[in-house]
Amino acid sequence: MKIMIDAGHGKDTPGKRSVDGMKEYEFNSAVASKLKELLMLFEGVSVMFSHSDSSDVPLHVRTSRANSANVDLFVSIHANAHGNGRTWTSAEGIETFVYQTKPKEAAELAAKVQEELIRATKRKNRGVKAADFYVLEKTKMTAILCECGFMTNKEEAALLRTDAYRALCARSIANGIASYYSLKKKKQTPTSTLYKVQVGAFSQKQHAINLAKELKKKGYDTLVVNE
Predict the structure, then answer these.
(1) Which domain holds residue 99?
(2) CB 171: neighbour CB atoms within 10 A?
(3) What domain count does the chain have?
(4) Which of 127, 179, 181, 226 is the most exposed place for a label (fewest CB within 10 A)?
């Protein structure tokens, strides 16, 4: 399964920031990176990004990348805003969007991801909604867009800044995707255990060296350590 993750906007997108100055891309890209890390733990999954840390990738380029790569799923990560963006408002919560005419699969996946986000974060559930956002309309595959909290809500803006909340959002989205598509975790290769034996402890270094020589004659690797 090929998945494209889209961290909305860019580092220098005008106006896309919290009332107290956090750029939305800081949140979006952090969640995207963690989400990729989590999704790569599943069998048969490959993940790519539509965005870039070095530039604000235009929307048509993002969707073109997804369509050209023939990915199975497009997931766009965002933080929400209300009002003029310069003052705190009471709007709060999380919502997940799909395109109005996309297949049933998108709505079902969005519902699962939304469920996981609300369960984990305990934020207000604003539900799954249909919208004509460009990245949802122009992508040819199943696509969802997650709004993970309001930058214009003082409480949620504080959460959006934290590594813990970012990781929580990423894990929730990954859990929703994994659950919906019945993804299986990769089997971890067991690590071999190394056992060590210490022979002798001396106050004089020469005694340790002499013993090490004797052990080497008998075929044992030795190491003299000064503690």
Answers:
(1) 2-181
(2) 17
(3) 2
(4) 226
Task: For 66-78, write each residue's pLDDT tens digit.
Answer: 999 999 999 999 9
Q: Which amino acid is at 203?
A: S
What is this structure's pTM?
0.82
Which H/E stretch holds residue 127?
A: strand 125-131
Q: Measuring CA to CA, which residue among 171, 174, 119, 164 is closest to residue 144?
A: 174
Closest CA to 85 of 28, 1, 29, 14: 14
Supply the angle between the helices 163-181 and 24-39 in degrees, to the nearest 10.
40
The backbone torsions φ and ψ at residue 28, rounded to the nearest 5 degrees and listed phi first, read -55, -45
Whether 124 and 86 share a structural domain = yes
At 96, list the tokens.
């997940």
Q: Which helix (H) or strand (E) holds 37?
A: helix 24-39
Q: Enter the tokens of residue 45.
A: 């999954």
- In-domain check, residue 187: no
**Residue written as token pair 């979006």:** 28
**pLDDT by residue (tens digit) across 150-198?**
999 999 999 999 999 999 999 999 999 999 999 999 988 777 777 777 7
Residue 74, H or E segment: strand 73-80
58 and 101: one domain? yes
Amino acid at 108: E
- d(CA 195, CA 135) in angstroms, rounded, equals 54
